């Protein structure tokens, strides 16, 4: 069986910590620290494996920055959870967090409705955990991402059309068997 899909160019141009700080200047002071450099060095390969210039085009550096910031945010959230050298000392890290939908203290009430700002598809759930991730996913949805595949029940022979008659086992259905192309 052969599966043909549109090939996405996964080679990205150079991107560095200065690009990250240009697009998200709020990280500039943090990135000037050793901890910030370590954060960037660890998250850059993750973003570079997920965000491709061939998809994002001129928005690629911004998309890379949003992806790195999203992961940095998730790590920062984990850094605020209980820490310790025993399993019972770190159990608070698994607490499920959600979006505040309603809270009342005395006469003060607060609620959020993200239906107009967050994408609600299943594949956006990971990215909805931060404002950076939501921005990245919304940007991604503005791009024309190729997603067509052709599946045949036989191998493809180089130099022939994708729907190759040679995958037919019956020679009468092949070219030269009187039938020409079977469709």
Description:
By secondary structure, this protein is mainly alpha-helical. The protein has one domain. Helices cover 34% and strands 8% of the residues. The protein has 6 helices and 4 strands, in the order βαααααββαβ. The strands form 2 sheets. The chain has a two-stranded antiparallel sheet. The protein has a two-stranded antiparallel sheet with strand order 2-3. The protein starts with a strand and ends in a 31-residue tail after the last strand. The C terminus is likely disordered.
Strand order of the largest sheet: 1-4
Low-confidence stretches: 176-183
* Shape assignment: extended
Number of strands: 4
Strand content: 5-15%
Structural class: mainly alpha
The tally of domains stands at 1
Give the termini distance in whole angstroms. Answer: 20 Å
Q: In a few lines, what is going on in this structure?
A:
The protein is mainly α.
Structure characteristics:
single chain, 183 residues, mainly alpha, two-stranded antiparallel sheet, two-stranded antiparallel ribbon, 6 helices, 34% helix, disordered C terminus
Blueprint (SSEs and pairs):
Layout: E1 2-5, H1 17-23, H2 28-31, H3 34-50, H4 53-56, H5 60-79, E2 103-105, E3 108-110, H6 131-140, E4 149-152
Antiparallel strand pairs: 1-4, 2-3
Helix pairs in contact: 1-5, 3-5, 5-6
């Amino acid at each position: 069986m052969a599966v043909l899909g549109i090939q996405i160019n996964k080679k990205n141009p150079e991107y560095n910590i200065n690009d990250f700080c240009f697009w998200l200047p709020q990280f500039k002071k943090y990135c000037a620290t050793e901890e910030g450099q370590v954060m960037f060095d660890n998250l850059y390969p993750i973003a570079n494996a997920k965000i491709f210039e061939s998809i994002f085009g001129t928005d690629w550096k911004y998309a890379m920055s949003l992806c790195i910031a999203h992961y940095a945010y998730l790590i920062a959230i984990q850094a605020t959870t209980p820490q310790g050298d025993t399993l019972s000392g770190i159990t608070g890290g698994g607490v499920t967090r959600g979006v505040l939908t309603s809270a009342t203290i005395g006469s003060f009430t607060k609620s959020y409705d993200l239906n107009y700002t967050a994408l609600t598809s299943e594949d956006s759930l990971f990215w909805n955990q931060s404002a950076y991730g939501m921005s990245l996913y919304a940007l991604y949805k503005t791009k024309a991402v190729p997603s067509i595949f052709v599946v045949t029940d036989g191998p493809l022979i180089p130099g022939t059309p994708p729907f190759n008659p040679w995958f037919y086992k019956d020679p009468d259905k092949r070219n030269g068997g009187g039938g020409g192309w079977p469709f």
